[in-house]
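ok trying again, last paste got cut off:
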Amino acid sequence: MINEDNILETIEMIKLHKLDIRTVTMAISLRDCMDSNIDRVCDKIYTKIKKYAEHLVEYAEELANDYSIPIINKRISVTPISIVGESVENVSPNDYVKIAKTLDKAAKEVGVNFIGGYSALVEKGCTKGDIALIESIPQALAQTERLCSSVNIGTSKAGINMHAILKMAEKIKETAELTKSEDCIGAAKLVVFCNAAQDNPFMAGAFCGIGEPECALNVGVSGPGVVKAAVEQLDKKADLSTLASTIKKTAYKITTTGELIGRKLAQKLNIPFGVIDLSLAPTPAQGDSVAGIFQAMGIEHAGAHGTTACLAMLNDAVKKGGIMASSHVGGLSGAFIPVSEDAGMIEAATKKYLTFDKLEAMTSVCSVGLDMIAIPGDTPATTIAGMIADEAAIGMINKKTTAVRVIPVCGKTVGDEVVFGGLLGKAPIMAVNNLSSEGFVCRSGRIPAPIHSLNN
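nice, full thing came through this time. structure:
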């Protein structure tokens, strides 16, 4: 039976509260594109992406029109390129840059806004391909437009590769320097993970894991504005159980909408439906803010004492509501707290309500970690390595995904602002701790996995 209230509620979610499908991401395995010759590798990659993704944008836009719900981003993720590239005889960083340009060209021709998977998994050490890819990252991101890169440096099972952390901190600095004419935007497309999810549809960390099928469609829903509106409709004295229940019910509705669109699009593309990622992904637009949900819950502003508790409750309620709506939940799933991409977080950081240390505390209960944070351009690589190590430790001990995406903005310091535009937004340059981490992060080896890794 047609329920008019449900129809009107969905229309209100879309028109007034910015409900959308944040991304549809086609995961494509490139494992069969390996070859000893770099030109053949590039040809195979280009041909395969064109074959599978040729109609991705077209069909997504048709569905968006048919169901009157915006699909904001259309993206591709591929097998970690370090694996594909190391089949090349005597592979070099220049070979990987050539693959990067091929991926970027294919992404542009099929019309997607980002392609992810310029990645390496090095939690226990590096192969020759991993080393060459990591060395190539600054040039690859500087010479492409739509490419995103990620490196996984730790897991709860393997521990944390400190050598890889220090190397990635250096590459973040190099990438920022090579893209300084564009406010160091290259670093905004580079993320360092612990416990990376292999079916994540969100950039910059999306890649097609080696256990994934030949091709699949993963969907990322959003809706911070919808959750905020639902919370604001409650009595200000409603107890916390009622608050959690309201968030769960709202997450259920958001998830069912996302899964409907995802399954319809997968069917049109004749590929399997993968997972739905429940993450509340904010934008710089007013009313589409995770920080705004905290205020609706009773916190004066993001950064106040109690913010971490609000985020923990929000994250848990979103997952509980979403898991009831779908049997195939994956990716990251929860609430994102990217500083530059959330209007409320931008305001909190600008007014210094939100500090770097408070953000780190919040990452212990959110979907990912230190995300889209602009820091002074003269921040040492060893300090950035310390940031990555701290986040990796939170992820490793808590068996959750954590990540660091910081942008050391060349020539700017605390009090300045950087503007990326679009979904990447803008951010104040945040202060970081000036105490040195060098003696620790320059030690070789791995931080051992915690005792709970021995649970076989």
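cool. The radius of gyration is 21 Å. The domain at 220-450 is CATH 3.20.70.20 (Anaerobic Ribonucleotide-triphosphate Reductase Large Chain).
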